[in-house]
Amino acid sequence: MRIYFIVCTFMMSLLFPLHTVHAAPSEENYRILFISSYSYSWGSIPHQIDGILNSLNAEQYTVNYEFMDTKNTKYSTDYAEFYQFLKYKLNDRLPYDGVIVGDDAALQFMMLYKDELFPNTPIVFEGIDNIESAKKAAQAPNITGVIEKVNYEANIKLAHSLFPTAEKLVLISDNTENGIGITEQLKEANDLFGQYDVEHLNTSHYTKEQFIERLTQLNTNSIVFGISIGQQKDGLIYSEDERYTLVRKYAQAPFFSITQAGVGSGMLGGYIIDHQKCGFLAGEMMRSILEDNIVPPIELDTPSTYLFDYKVMEKYNIASSKLPIDADIMNEPEHFLQKYALWIINILVLCLALATVAYFVRRKASEQLKIAYNQLVMTEADLKVQFESNKKHIEALKIQEKQIRFQATHDDLTNLPNRRATTAHLKTLLLERTPFTVLLVDLDNFKEINDTYGHFSGDMLLSILAKRFLTMAEENDHIYISRFGGDEFLIIINGHITPSDNRIRRVREAFVTPIIYDDSQYDIRVSIGIAHNTNADSVDSLLANADLALHEAKQTGKNKDVYYSPEMRTALIQTQEIKHILHTACEEDEFYLLFQPQIDVATEKVYCYEALLRLKNDALSPAQFIPVAEESELMITIGRIVATKAVEQLVSWREAGIALVPIALNFSPKQINDKDYATFLKQLLDKHHLQANLIEIEFTESILINNDEEATKLFQNFLAAGIQLALDDFGTGYSSIRYLTFIPVQKIKLDKSFVDIFLQDGKESFIENIIRLAHSLNKKITVEGVEEEAQYLKLKHSNCDYIQGYYFSKPIRGDQVQH
Predict the structure, then answer these.
(1) Chain centroid to CA 465
(2) What does the pLDDT look like over 773-807, one tens digit per residue?
(3) What does pTM read for this prediction?
(4) Which 3 state secondary structure label does DSSP give 198?
(5) How far is CA 580 from the centre of its chain?
(6) Nearest CA to 108 among 62, 72, 76?
(7) Three-class secondary structure assignment of 538-602
(8) Count of helix runs (H) and strand runs (E) in the chain
(9) Which of 18, 340, 602, 664 is the 20 to 30 A CA-CA neighbour of 378?
(10) What is the bridge-based pairing of β-strands 269-273 and 304-309?
């Protein structure tokens, strides 16, 4: 037994040598954003992300993710909806040091908006099928990446070796961004297909039923390359599970794949793109840019590997021996030797050692054997020490492995489950079909805390809030809490909760008590988007519902709870459709102006016209499309279009001999971001030799909220150009007499609601007092919404300066204006 122990210990010292684990040095922290046009559940995405994370030091890099989910979301051609959504989220986040994009559509989005969203930020791309687009993007400084070029030559040789009697080659693609890119690559590979009767099958031209019928027609005499099977006719999208279910259920011909997606779900496999290695290369490139200030050249040699599904191999009687030596096989059952290989090797080594000792015993004399034995005994103590050391090392490795697994599924800052772990947990809950509720919690104005007190203080606040959440979770087993990214937390609660549910109150209580840190008090307010699992059939749609509810909470005042309803998605779709209409109208000149006169009460002559915007080819009213425009950058473009058309109308009137009066233009709070608008307007007037006082800018008091300094500067620019100013809708919204004392307006406009409420017998004195107040401040006053003679006479008696309304005229076209 002693000899056996010595030999075993000796063998363990060979199998488990000592290693010293060095902690990575703490260096500068970098923030990286990964953008993909797919969702996290898409087959290749986890491999891309794993590759990126494996290349970046977790202590040095923080990686966040944003998914466009184009397979489930209808966007306009310039992805303006995702731009608005991402811009909104970036407002409350720390800036990113680098951006990695994972496919063609994500690169296209980045090239459209990089200068605005990520100015001067390094960009690394991967998974790009359109090679020309990748090369063009890489011409810009600080942009490089890895293309996704399919090795068709290797795949054709492989297909021919496995199915030598096949005569037909079917190449399936679609009109998605990656489908178009790969189709371009196919044109270069046409020479490789000469031995086959080649058919190009575009799923974008087929309905689901037509595509199924076509699949059933493909027999084993055909070889199929499933290049991109994503889009149906009329732009409908197959889900990932749906497309591979079609392959498994209806296809008799073998389906080769060019990516990891689908292998294991019905596709045979092939010489596929290795997305994990591509992600690793992208991460290495980003490290080179950020740490060494070196932008690597674009990588044109795409990492690839042989990968096959054993279950599909069995279907077509393909033996493993027919595959390349370095091929990986999924779903392959373990053979006895594979399962017990380590034990067998250890036993063989032990037997060999014992046989060697026995042979040595037979060959050596008794004295020599005693000497050898004594030498073994002398080393026994050392080997015991080595054995114990190896045991400790193995335990240390187990602990380290446990830590790595924890780090892979938990957030470094808060120790809460991270996005990856939460997504997996949600998938499990959806499969169980038990009722549960998702709460997406976002800190209001967290960016202001970071800007005011520093990012370190912001991180400490998140850590303290996480501890409060953990305490709440420990007290209730039915609550799951995670950090979902940035300043967002995701809470999962069993059952479908209602607004009166105590668990909502308990979540709110985590933020009631102010946080005291570093002699400062922080009052935390949060917006919460709430969604039930009954409204979603996938993790992506469930999270999208919660995000919609959160967006609604933010848009309607913050610090509130909003429950998702299907009407929100309907409203979102309607908003997207209106944005598309507005985009088209901007590009194709589909706007026109109407003009409603403002009448001088004393002379009953037209003093001014207010320009009112309309759409030429759509029945949408301004009440429907103006709010949508004001939520996007479209308002800036529309503002300039209105100004241009108003000036052109003045020129037209002048040429017709009509005496010119000012035109009033409505100025949206969104236009305050158009820094050069006043200069643009002045140059437009000068170009047509028009006096600046022929334009009047009408704005509401809302432009002053949170924009005092910018608004003051804008007013000064207008006045310096000679352009008149008017305060519109006074008496509604944020009305404050304080504004009247310092904003340099020449005119105040009273909203129509004043006419409806106060211009009645016994209440006229209220409007009379407002008119006297305006006159005391040397300002003229216009009353809107005058529709009856009695209203006009009362206003005239009250010394009102101007009136506007249907009593004198409804809005008219420019060519209807008389001398």
Answers:
(1) 25
(2) 889 989 999 999 999 998 899 899 899 999 999 99
(3) 0.49
(4) strand
(5) 20
(6) 76
(7) CHHHHHHHHHHHHHHHHHCCCCCEEECCHHHHHHHHHHHHHHHHHHHHHHHCCEEEEEEEEEECC
(8) 28, 27
(9) 18
(10) antiparallel
